[in-house]
Specification:
This protein has nine helices and 14 strands. By secondary structure, the protein is α/β, with parallel strands linked by helices. The structure holds zinc ion and fe (iii) ion. The site of fe (iii) ion (FE) has 6 residues, from helix 2.
């Protein structure tokens, strides 16, 4: 089986469009559908025809182009079971633990409540790819709109259990802001300091910071490092539980 081809591009102001293409079957999936024109442009640039949309959650900046793309290409739309009524054009719903195939590639559904109550991630175990949308960002985590921090921490633990070599595509170019915040809660982390300076350079050059890996996040994402002694000491939370440290970091970021 050939590796999937991946095309990443900007939509709206800071959303990522992501297309996956299987050259043997011609199948092409858009991870979410943030904006019609850039997705169509990317498809035309590559000479691909859209066959599928995998929706991660109901926010407008992830589903806005669902109906227009379905009208144009007749593509099939999958999305989170727990938000089914809020996903325009939904054909098939996906719940935690579901497994299906995309052009012969296994896809597993991981529910990650927190940002929204029904948010799901799509994991391709044989391709070592994760599409995390607004759950996990580079050095960050999605805002908690619909579920408390303890639920998001549980969601994070599911993603932390994936292999370190898994490549992660996320929903927004928020990396610079996340990095600048992360160093304030984890100032003794040399890997983080190094990565933060790399990200400053990338953004100065107008480059994207996508993708990341589970391994890189485990080293530099403060929301994954809540058990770290130095981080806890810095926050004055030596005796708190992991979920409490996670919640404190998220609250501090909200108040930046
Ligand atoms: Zn969102
Ligand atoms: Fe979003």
């Amino acid at each position: 089986m050939k590796p999937l081809e991946i095309e990443v591009f900007l939509c709206r102001s800071d959303n990522f469009g992501v297309l996956l293409h299987d050259s043997e079957t011609g199948a092409t999936v858009s991870i979410d559908a943030p904006e019609e024109a850039p997705i169509i442009d990317a498809l035309n640039r590559r000479g691909w025809t859209l066959t599928d949309i995998f929706t991660t959650h109901h926010h407008q900046d992830h589903v806005e182009a669902n109906l227009a793309l379905k009208e144009k290409y007749g593509c099939e739309i999958r999305g989170p079971h727990d938000e089914a009524i809020a996903i325009p054009g939904l054909d098939r719903s996906a719940a935690d633990g579901d497994e299906f195939e995309f052009a012969g590639h296994r896809v597993q559904v991981i529910s990650t409540p927190g940002h929204t109550a029904g948010h799901i991630c799509y994991y391709f175990p044989d391709d070592a790819l994760l599409f995390a949308a607004d759950t996990l960002f580079a050095m960050g985590c999605g805002r908690l709109f619909e579920r408390p921090a303890a639920d998001m921490w549980h969601s994070f633990q599911k993603l932390m259990a994936l292999p370190d070599n898994v490549t992660v595509y996320f929903g927004h170019e928020y990396t610079l802001s996340n990095a600048r915040f992360a160093v304030t809660v984890d100032p003794q982390n040399a890997a983080l300091a190094q990565r933060a300076s790399e990200v400053e350079a990338l953004r100065n050059d107008g480059k994207f910071t996508i993708p990341t890996t589970i391994g890189a996040e485990k080293q530099t994402n403060p929301y994954m490092r809540v058990a770290d002694e130095a981080l806890r000491a810095h926050l004055g939370m030596k005796d708190a539980n992991d979920a409490e440290v996670f919640a404190e970091i998220r609250t501090r970021k909200d108040n930046v």
